[in-house]
Write a structure and sequence with these properties.
seven-stranded antiparallel beta sheet; Thrombin, subunit H; alpha+beta; Pdz3 Domain; 4 domains; six-stranded antiparallel β-barrel; about 475 residues; 25 strands
Length: about 475
């Protein structure tokens, strides 16, 4: 009954308030003024920033290539393969990344980790595939240079990373997750970042930090400014998942330019040394070195040790001095120190401003190479099929740093069908062998000859790249 009464009441009220046109009239509300004809707002013209992004994207995407690394990997097929160290079958694996066209005649720059252990490297540009030659690598900066047989390529225009400011807009261009020619935008979040990821003998870390999205596959790609000029090579991300989580890191173009030039001309980077070990300054370091600092003096880098007869020592620097300026650039930390030093070559004169007990001083230093001279150095790599590895002697600078008198580095351990004794023994890359059964190893020939002749119980001694001692014991029949 209630439902029926409600229905009749509603119908009665509807009829009562319906006007002659059959429309509902508002109750107890003033009639609004007639609304003028609605007009849609005019389409907003693209801002200057978006126009910059369009131009920068067009310039940079034409110069970024897709890279395929084809390598071999030994796959154990049974328990006996695992137990006895047999190689099993060899499987071909493919990984991908990005590269940047550095010159019109076919030189391409990418990351060292993108081309590491490659048996073959392919470059895809404008849907055409090229076989690439590896010109050289520099693990210390995680860079590599390739060459393809092509001409009139769209070389990317070069920028300047030293003048790049925190807060500037940048674009990351690459091939994340095999999505070719992808562009993301962000700002420069920080400069001179040292995040301890480079595995070279003398690591150079002064990364440009950006919040432009960088993902796996972006490695080796371009970081460009609003003009499309190259300011860095995208290298790493800070992530707990392996995918973009807020921050990416790029090698500054000022470092890249020097590395590429040296690899093309000499096959090896002519890295310069000041003959001192330095560190960022904090309270603990200041207390250990006896440095008195006020709140405004936690910039610069402190000298914690000097190489005997090194460039810094000859220039008058001492342990505990604080380097605050080099080559006219303010040194706010180790990252900027590395960046300035890495753009110079052995033999260059460097003006260094430093503080000692609150007094500012200036030194003129002649930079040296890793052997303590100013000569051009070309790497001598000893390749051994029997050992299944590339070997090299340890430089004077590194022997002083690691406090060893001699040694041979295992530079590269072969994989797949080329694997040999080093892989079977489980000796890692960059391990430095100093003795075998107490016999001193001073050259690659020493190492190869001793291992070829030795029988019975074998004890290999050495240090890793950080100077930590290690031992391997085997029985040779």
């Amino acid at each position: 009954m209630l439902s029926i009464l409600s229905g009749f009441s509603g119908a009665f009220l509807y009829d009562y308030y319906k006007d002659e046109r059959g429309q509902i009239t508002a109750l107890n509300i003033n009639e609004p003024e007639p609304m003028s004809e609605f007009t849609y707002p005019a389409r907003v013209a693209p801002t200057e920033l978006s126009e910059d992004f369009v131009k920068a994207s067009a310039v940079s995407t034409a110069s970024v290539v897709y890279l395929r690394n084809i390598s071999e990997q030994a796959v154990s097929t049974s328990f006996f393969d695992l137990f006895f160290g047999e190689p099993g079958r060899v499987s071909e694996t493919v990984s991908t990344g990005s590269g940047v066209i550095f010159s019109r005649d076919g030189y391409i720059v990418t990351n060292n980790h993108v081309v590491e252990h490659a048996k073959r490297i392919e470059i895809i540009h404008n849907k055409k595939t090229y076989d690439a030659i590896l010109v050289g690598t520099d693990p210390s900066s995680d860079l590599a240079v390739l060459k393809i047989d092509a001409s009139s390529l769209p070389a990317i225009p070069m920028g300047n990373s030293r003048d790049l400011q925190v807060g500037e807009w940048v674009l990351a261009v690459g091939n994340p997750f095999n999505l070719t020619s992808t562009v993301t935008a962000g700002i420069v979040s920080a400069k001179g970042r040292n995040i301890n990821i480079v595995r070279g003998k003398f690591p150079i870390e002064s990364f440009i930090q950006t919040d432009a999205a960088i993902n796996p596959g972006n490695s080796g790609g371009a970081l460009v400014d609003k003009n499309g000029d190259l300011v860095g090579i995208n290298t790493a991300i800070l992530s707990r998942t392996g995918s973009y989580a807020g921050y990416g890191f790029a090698v500054p173009i000022d470092i890249v330019r020097k590395v590429v030039r040296d690899l093309i001309e000499y096959g090896e980077v002519q890295q310069s040394f000041i003959g001192a070990e330095i560190t960022d300054i904090d309270e603990r370091i200041a207390n250990n070195l006896g440095i008195e600092l006020d709140d405004s003096h936690y910039t610069g880098v402190a000298i914690v040790s000097l190489q005997q007869d090194g460039a810094a020592s000859k220039g008058g620097l001492r342990k505990g001095d604080i380097i605050v300026e080099m080559d006219g650039a303010l040194i706010d930390g180790k990252g900027m120190y590395d960046e300035v030093l890495s753009t110079h070559s052995p033999g260059d004169r460097l003006v260094v401003a430093f503080e000692r007990k609150g007094e500012r001083k200036v030194a003129n230093i002649t930079l040296t190479n890793r052997e303590g001279t100013t000569e051009i150095i070309k790497s001598e790599i000893y390749s051994s099929r029997t050992l299944g590895a590339d070997l090299e002697s340890v430089s004077k600078v590194e022997k002083d740093r690691l406090e060893i008198e001699h040694g041979v580095r295992i530079k590269n351990v072969y994989r797949g069908s080329d694997r040999g004794l080093m892989s079977d023994l489980g000796i890692k890359e960059n391990f430095i062998i100093t003795h075998i059964n107490s016999y001193p190893i001073k050259s690659p020939d020493d190492l190869s000859n001793v291992l070829a002749k030795i029988k019975g119980r074998v004890r290999i001694e050495g240090v890793d790249e950080n100077g930590v001692k290690g031992y391997y014991s085997f029985y040779f029949r």
